[in-house]
């Protein structure tokens, strides 16, 4: 998320604009999330960002951090004023010339407003009717702004997926993306059976990259193994090493830890996965070249593990799983193998 004032106050500084808004073409489709509450400022920020050709602009109406919700009345607290949210979205869309969709990320309620479905339904209806928004990414928990930290707000308020499913039924001209508590492809598949348009996975992918993502093509998009892009973890990591090397060459100020975060958990639960992570950490601290760091880390992992293809991974899962499901933890397979 980028706060609208950050872009407005630095619009005349090309280096900072590139730092805040720049990205590589490989990242498409990519969405910019803005934070703010003033329709004029958000419209100005959206106009500034339009030069960077994002695929959508999203308004943050879901962040429970007191640094956001408690100052300037944006983030989750914006849900208390649906008309203002609608005006913000309408003005942003106008500033973009209608060429880029404006979407909203929100919760199902604020504080105890999730006791009934009415609050989130009325919010969505107002933002759709008055703001022209037709896509909502919804964290299926309320944001409890009084008494819980942001971390606690990710776990303590109860999940109510049924609210999002009901929204999809009642507003069939809108797209709803479910967020919150989805940690596996099995859970994602179950959610997608309820007429929603998508599922958002964040920390599950970050913390268990391969296990969550390697079967996406076949399990979610119904692609056969013949048409899926079959790549081993070693191939993926080394392709990423080339990308990261290029990015670092363009901007040496970037943090190695930040740049390598997407591949740190590539061998989560696999044999010598912890050593792989340790070698990356050591290399980053020593400020070694990116490609060398990842090559050394890969060499710590057994060859049959790092060269395993998604189709082979699926077959092993099916062989080991008592339930016959391919979506079983690699930790269980590793335990059997050992």
Q: Your description of this structure?
A:
Helix 3 runs parallel beside helix 5 and helix 13 packs antiparallel against helix 14. Strands 1-2-3-4-5-6-7 form a seven-stranded parallel beta sheet. With 338 residues, the chain is an alpha/beta fold. Helices cover 49% and strands 12% of the residues.
* Alpha-beta content class: alpha/beta
> Major sheet: order of its strands?
1-2-3-4-5-6-7
Q: Can you write the helix and strand succession as a string?
A: EHHEHEHHEHEHHEHEHHHHHHHHHH
- Radius of gyration, in Å, reads 22 Å
Separation of the first and last Cα atoms? 43 Å
Shape: globular
- Report the β-strand fraction as a percent range: 5-15%
The number of distinct helices, counting runs of at least 4 residues, comes to 19
Q: Which residues sit in consecutive blocks of at least 5 with pLDDT less than 50?
A: 331-338
Please give the largest β-sheet: 7 strands, parallel
- Helical proportion? 40-55%
Features:
338 residues, alpha/beta, 7 strands
Q: What is the element layout, followed by pairings?
A:
Layout: E1 2-3, H1 4-9, H2 14-21, E2 31-35, H3 39-49, E3 56-61, H4 66-69, H5 82-95, E4 102-110, H6 118-131, E5 135-143, H7 150-153, H8 161-170, E6 175-179, H9 185-192, E7 198-200, H10 203-207, H11 209-213, H12 216-219, H13 233-250, H14 256-264, H15 273-285, H16 290-299, H17 303-306, H18 310-320, H19 330-337
Parallel strand pairs: 1-2, 2-3, 3-4, 4-5, 5-6, 6-7
């Amino acid at each position: 998320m980028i706060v609208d004032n950050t872009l407005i106050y630095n619009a005349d500084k090309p280096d900072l604009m590139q730092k805040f808004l720049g990205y590589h073409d490989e990242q498409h489709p990519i969405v910019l999330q803005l934070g703010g509450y003033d329709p004029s400022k958000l419209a100005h920020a959206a106009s500034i960002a339009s030069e960077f050709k994002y695929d959508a602009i999203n308004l943050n109406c879901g962040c429970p951090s007191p640094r956001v919700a408690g100052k300037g009345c944006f983030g989750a607290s914006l849900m208390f004023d649906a008309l203002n949210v609608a005006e913000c979205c309408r003005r942003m869309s106008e500033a973009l010339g209608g060429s880029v969709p404006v979407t909203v990320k929100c919760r199902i309620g604020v504080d105890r407003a999730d006791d009934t479905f009415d609050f989130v339904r009325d919010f969505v209806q107002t933002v759709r009717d008055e703001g022209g928004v037709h896509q909502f990414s919804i964290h299926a928990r309320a944001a409890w702004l009084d008494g819980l930290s942001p971390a606690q707000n990710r776990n303590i308020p109860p999940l109510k997926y049924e609210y999002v499913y009901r929204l999809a039924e009642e507003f069939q001209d809108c797209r709803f993306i479910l967020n919150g508590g989805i940690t596996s492809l099995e859970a994602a598949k179950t959610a997608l059976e309820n007429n929603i348009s998508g599922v958002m996975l964040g920390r599950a992918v970050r913390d268990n990259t391969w296990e969550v993502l390697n079967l996406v093509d076949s399990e979610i998009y119904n692609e056969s193994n013949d048409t899926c892009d079959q790549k081993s973890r070693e191939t993926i990591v080394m392709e990423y090493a080339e990308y990261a090397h290029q990015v670092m060459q363009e901007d040496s100020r970037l943090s190695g830890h930040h740049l390598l975060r997407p591949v740190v958990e590539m061998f989560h639960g696999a044999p010598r996965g912890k050593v792989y992570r340790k070698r990356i950490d050591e290399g980053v601290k020593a400020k070694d070249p990116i490609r060398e760091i990842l090559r050394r880390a890969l060499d710590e992992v057994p060859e049959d593990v790092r060269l395993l293809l998604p189709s082979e991974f699926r077959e092993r899962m099916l062989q080991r799983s008592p339930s016959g499901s391919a979506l079983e933890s690699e930790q269980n397979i590793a335990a059997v193998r050992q």
